[in-house]
Amino acid sequence: MSSAAARPGTRKALLFALAAHGLSAYYAHGQWMTLAQGASLAGHWLVLKNLRIDAAERRLLAELADGLARQIAGSLSREAGLYTAHEMMEALDPNYRSELAFDLLDECDRLLRAHGVAD
Asked: Where do the domains of the chain lie?
């Protein structure tokens, strides 16, 4: 079966997921994911969803997610950052509801629009 093109909301969800993983990795290991790791994770996520986005756009989303994760970490105390990373990772489950995650999804949407990425 061939992959389908990305559906509306895919880029926002992918940006959120990449930022969640990046922030979680930072708090767990004290290191940021590289952009190559982020782009690779994006590709894996898309395969699981049977979707496709070209490599250049995956790299852009990885870059935006890295910037968002670093912005979050830089603006919060360690405890608040750990909580935020946890909430974001939990929110990757579509059955989990989080006002914080909804706010961050809105921020992902704003970032995409600011960089001219249609979702």
From this structure: 7-112
Give the closest residue to 15 by CA, choosing from 88, 93, 75, 79. Answer: 88
pLDDT-derived band at 4 (thresholds 50, 70, 90) equals low
**Could you report the per-residue pLDDT of 31-72, keeping only the tens digit for each?**
999 999 999 999 999 999 888 889 999 999 999 999 999 999
Helical spans, DSSP H, in 31-93: 35-48, 55-75, 78-90
- Looking at residues 101-115, what average pLDDT do you find? 96
Q: In a 3-state reduction of DSSP, which class is residue 106? A: helix
> What does the alpha-carbon distance between residue 72 and residue 43 come to, in Å, rounded to a whole number?
24
Q: How far is Cα 15 from Cα 26, in angstroms, rounded to an integer?
A: 16
User: Taking the CB of residue 92, how many other CB atoms lie within 10 A of it?
Assistant: 15
Closest by CA to 87, choosing from 77, 78, 97, is: 97
